[in-house]
Every structure is written in structure tokens, then in C-alpha cells.
Please model this.
Amino acid sequence: MNSARLQPLTYWLLLLIGVAAPMLFPDYTNQIAVLWLMIVFALTWDILGGQMGYNSLGNIFFFGAGMYVSAVTQIGLYYDVGMYTSAARTTHIAFSYSQYFTGFALGTVTGGLVSAVLAIGVGSFVFGLRGPYFAIGTLGIAVAAAELVSSWEWVGAASGISLPVFPGGPETQKLFFYFLLFALSFILLLFLRWLYSTNFGLAINAIRDDEEKAEGMGLHTRGYKRTALVIAAFFLGLSGAIFGNMTGFIEPRDIAFPTTTFNIFMVLMVLLGGKGTLWGPVVGAVVFHVIKEVTWTYFLGWQYVTLGLLIVIIVVYFQQGIVGWVMEKYPERFGIQIAPKEPEEIPRTAGLATQPGGAE
Model:
């Protein structure tokens, strides 16, 4: 079966797995929900790092921004945010059914939009950097955001914020956030499949291959780079808003802006699956999440040793990733045409005996 026929079947199979998973494995609903979040992380990072060649280490900034903007919106619609987050508050604040879902819907959309707006501002100066300077600059933004929010008393500072309680039973809550994260990752995958097939996909690939030549050919590279960052930031902001409500509590360093966990996971998943491919981040996220859950569950205390070894193995021995290796091994299954090698031309004088008496 060729790739043209296989692709629609793959999407339908993924949809079936996503819908059936919580019914087949009800005890692992939250873990599978986090898997869909990992897929969002990997896909959004690959927009810049794989398709465009700009290796960002600060994408987690938009995830945390969406989380905090959503929380402030949800609370601020009905109560004073400073009073709600105050350590001196002694009264219990409850949200009604309509208040919760109205606030959650508005907060999620606002979190995505504000993250996209922040991406415009961030892109206006970080895209003046290239190579390792770009990576370090974006990482600095994420670290600075975590420190600033940690000292901002109005949003709870380092103590964090307890989000409104979901107005339903535990099982309903798990399924609600599971299907939101699954829908977000599936929509993102379909959107990127379309986006990469347009001129936009060709443009960001040209930037990755040779940005100077792309500019010389009249391509407005700054606009394409900023647009790519805005797209990634929007989906990361939405995922941050959903995940913050799923956990029920957010704080700056370990949940909203975790630069040493989620931020590193984004890069590692894409490298594991294959940079610059549509399905590479998905495959990498699935494999990485399974390894992470197994080591965190059965080898607690050794999980970061395993993570470090995985990084070394990928960087040294497996640079093309899983999908990249498969595409290299079986190119015809992905519609890649390999030109046959030209037969070597035989020199005219080959095999001719030297004539006696010839010129020296």
C-alpha cells in the first residue's frame, strides 16, 4: 500500500485510538491525556526546530503564559484575583456550574490568544539572533518569566494558584480533560498536515536550508518566522490553559514554566521521532512518554539517568530519529523516488594493449 492510500487510514486509526483509549484503559486515562499533551509539545516545537531550523529552548514560556492568563481570566470574571490568591484569605470560594464552564471557555481562548500576541513581541527581537544565540535567548525568556511570576504576589507568587474546582465527579473530570487534550492534538496534527503542504511550508523549509539565499530570492523571512512562532505559541497557550485546569493547581517553576522537564522533553521527543517530519514528533512523543512512565513508575530515582542516556544515544547514534531512519531505509513507502545510479563510463583506452613502437 502506497503512502497516498495509507495516510487517510492512519488518521482514522489515530482517531479511533484516541476515542477508545479511556474506555479500554480507564485506570490510565490521565497518563494517556498527558501523552496527547506531549504530542502537542512535540508538534509545536517541530514547527520552528524541525521545519524551520530554529532550535528554540523557550517554547515553555507560551505554555506557562497561557496557563496563568487562563487562571486570571477564570477567577477575575467573578472575584478579585488579588483577594483570591492572598495567603490571608480564610473564606472558601466556590464557582457555580455556569461560572466554571463560562470562565474556563473564555480563559482557554484568552490564554491562546495572549500567548500568540506575546509571540509577536518575543519574535520581534529573538529572531535577530541565530544558532546557539537564538536557543539561549529563548531559554532566558522562559527562565526570566518563571522568576518574575514567582515574585508577583497578585498571582500567588511562588505559592501558586488553586484553580476553580471542576463541578463534577472525578471520572467525568478525567474524561473531560482527556478529550480536550486529544481533540487539541488531533486538530493540530491535521492543521499542520495542511500547513506544510502550502507555500508556507515551502518557505519555512527554505529558511531552514539556507536563509540567506531565501532572502536573496525575495522571501520575507522575518514574517514567516514570526508567523511560525505565533502558531506554535497559540496552541501551546491553549494546552497550558487546559492542563492547568486538569491539575487544579499551578505554580511557576514546576508546572507553568518547567524549563528542566517539559521544556527539555519537547526537544528530546522531536529528536527521537525525527525532525522536520509530520509524524516524527508524534512517534517520538509516544515512545518517549512510554519510556518516561515506565522509568518514573518502576525505576524511581533512576529516571533522570535513563533520560540522560537516551539523550546521548539519540545525539550520537540516532540523529535522524525513528521516522527519519525508516524513511531512509524504505523511501518508496513514503513516495520518495530514488534516481537510479548512472553506470560508470568505461574509458576508451581500457583493455587496449599498448602498441609496440608507440610514442613514449
In short: The domain at 3-334 is CATH 1.10.3470 (ABC transporter involved in vitamin B12 uptake, BtuC). Confidence is low (pLDDT under 50) at residues 349-360.
